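WARN retry 2 of 3 for item q-0093 after timeout on previous attempt; input resubmitted unchanged.
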Amino acid sequence: MTSAEARERIAELRAQVARHDELYYRRAKPEVTDQDYDRLKRRLSDLEAMFPQFRTADSPTGRVGDDRLEGFVVYRHRQAMQSLDNTYSEEELRAFHQRLVKLFGREDLAYVVEPKIDGIAVSLTYERGVLVRAATRGSGFEGDDITANAKTIRTLPPELKRPKGKGPGGRAVLPDVIEIRGEIYMTLAEFERINREREEAGEGQFANPRNLTAGTIKQLDTREVARRKLEIVLYGVGFCEPAAAETQSGLHGLLRAWGLPTVERYWTARGIEETWAAVRELDQLRHSFAYGTDGAVVKLDSFAQQREAGSTSKAPRWAIAYKFAAERVETRLNAIAVQVGRTGVLTPVAELEPVVLAGTTVSRATLHNKDEIARKDIRVGDYVQVEKAGEVIPAVVGVNTERRAKDAVPYVFPAKCPVCGTRVVQVEGEVALRCPNTDCPAQVRRRVQHFASKGGVDIDGLGEAMIDTLAEKGWIRSIADVYRLQRDDLLTLGKSVEKSTDNLLAAIAASKRAELWRFINGLGITHVGVAAAKDLALRFGSLEALAAARREELLSIEGIGDIMADAIIAHFNEPRNRALVSELLRLGVDPTAPARPAGGATPLAGKVFVLTGTLPRLTREEATAMIETAGGKVSGSVSRKTSYVLAGEEAGSKLEKARSLGVPVIDEAEFRRMLRG
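OK item q-0093 returned
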């Protein structure tokens, strides 16, 4: 490569990296995988090393990605927040060790190996034990102040516990000022919950928990942030006065003593063989964690050695991230199906030649949207690469163009709804295309399916297949038609259907008295999920009152912000939606208002429960209802704020987590005694 060619290629690579940095750090919408991005940046770094005359101070290889956004106050870190050099190679991990061996003159260096959690880097400042600030990494020198949003994280204590005694060398255990570094993340269970709600709403799914976390923590409305249950883990230290620990392993002990959430597992190791064994063990265990883990972070244990090893302008020389390569398989794309959700969003889905990926057989994968198909030039008949995005959702991430058939043609996204033929539209500011016809059979079917689902009025026997059959017969054109179904009609659907028909009609009749929150959630109001539906039911007590609610009344409810309040108002401003409420009431729907304990007694007020395993006499839904009726709350994950874990047979990792945190574990008998007071 000539000098002129190198200069041109370096400029081209810098532009590409800058674009991907903007997409990843600021917009939380990356277009390439982490591994592809790292390869791109490595090529740039190698070229700059070969042609140092073209290296500049503003090259992305010498600085961390900048996540600062307008609308946030900028805060300058007392000590810079750096990134980490990373590798996918055992050989490079061993080379990292050898560089330190050369510096310190010994092979048995002590390391700490920690899981690399796929989230958003954060720095917390505690002054005299009180949380005063939370900030993103930003440019490394200054980041966005996200204190208000961080305080919505239930496991983050506003004040540190004050352990008795003294630290190493007689120092105070609780520093006057300390910057504690860590990661804000979202559990896989919460990510799946949010995506389920979006799927039911006919909205596009988020690609992975990291992107959703990044978008959530930068919301300007803290109430919207609180709706998405973020978590935090702390594992590092920046500025600290006076010093509180001498080793990384000792810091972990201090963080726990202060009452902070820390990594659930870390390894201490001596020498590279023990360290590599720890990395491999983590790789085997990480799939059992409640969050996404994309690698292992290897750090020198001694803070004194860390200081001696020093840092580059971007990353410490005493630590490295070994990233686990995402499992990727190649298979044939047989077709692209376009689904229409209950809000009219058109979602493309890849229909694949079945292939095993991460232990499961995959035959369908997300294609996200029209723009993604065009950008990747995905064509029917192509051999495509499939990964599990965030280890959750199978996604098409690339195309093997070398295996492309000569007659393969670019995919043309439908200009009309594939179900009703209405010309699709694109709302300004949205990527998705929508069918604007609210009477579109696909939208009607999915609205009825959502209404009758477990999270709705829970009509057993009225699943997707039955709804499709009823819609094809013309018997269901709206939610209200569920309550107009006739026994004589249903009996014509096949032989020996009398029992199933009577069971379905009984379930429909019983649903008329379903809990109010089920009707609210079943109506499919944008942004309103189960938790919000329960809050609305408790506040308004009837569908009519909710339909007439004023904006200020909605905003007075904890957890309901501007976006959700506006969505509720807009929903009931639609004449057809208000007419549906009236129609349901005329058909005999009489929702059960939230039960309140006799005499106002709330024996579980303020208590947070986590359910795990199978209870002897109660379903999970029944136990949840009993807890909420008695004033308690149910959480999906165990933390130090959990009051009790209600455990049955075959309890899983939540039980182990409770024991490790010292959270009381009770059985159903003890739970019933608590309810009696």
